[in-house]
Design a protein that fits this description.
The chain is mainly alpha-helical. The protein has six helices and two strands, in the order ααααββαα. Pfam families: MarR_2 (PF12802).
Length: 156
């Protein structure tokens, strides 16, 4: 490797480390701020599942395995989250009529209300961030972040 290509590799590595350091710190700060505005007793993982189920459509369901895969968590972690949501009355979990070994999960009316209450706290926070950064800059950043997410998802 020539000295110039070694310098280029060092620059690429440095850029990669800087990029991921910023992403990880932004993730940590965002999670911390979002957790503070969620309704009492709701965790960010609970909101994420409720938000997904609310977007699936009325009456449509997902299996715990599908949710675990979607959120890149173990089935055990998803089962724990779903159990807490069920105990709060936010989801309905029923046997799969076609395969009794599986279960199906749907958001309940109370879960939809809890998700809406969470959004009422979250939207002002994230809207302020977008306003501070500027809509044009955020729009320009989204395709890059989306591509990065897809690239990372391809490698899992």
């Amino acid at each position: 490797m020539t000295e110039s290509s070694a310098d280029l590799m060092d620059e690429t590595n440095s850029l990669a480390v800087s990029l991921f350091s910023e992403i990880l710190m932004a993730d940590q700060l965002a999670r911390s701020r979002l957790s503070k505005v969620l309704p009492k007793g709701m965790e960010l993982s609970h909101f994420s599942v409720l938000n997904h189920l609310a977007g699936v459509g009325v009456g449509l369901e997902r299996s715990p395995a599908q949710l675990a895969k979607l959120f890149h968590v173990t089935r055990g972690a998803m089962t724990n989250t779903l159990h807490k949501l069920e105990m709060a009355g936010y989801v309905h979990i029923r046997p799969d009529w076609d395969d009794a070994r599986r279960k199906m999960v749907a958001i309940s009316p109370a879960g939809r209300q809890a998700r809406d209450a969470a959004l009422a706290g979250i939207v002002p926070l994230i809207s302020e961030v977008v306003s501070d950064l500027g809509q044009d800059r955020v729009r320009a950043t989204l395709p890059i972040l989306r591509e990065l997410r897809e690239k990372l998802d391809d490698e899992t």
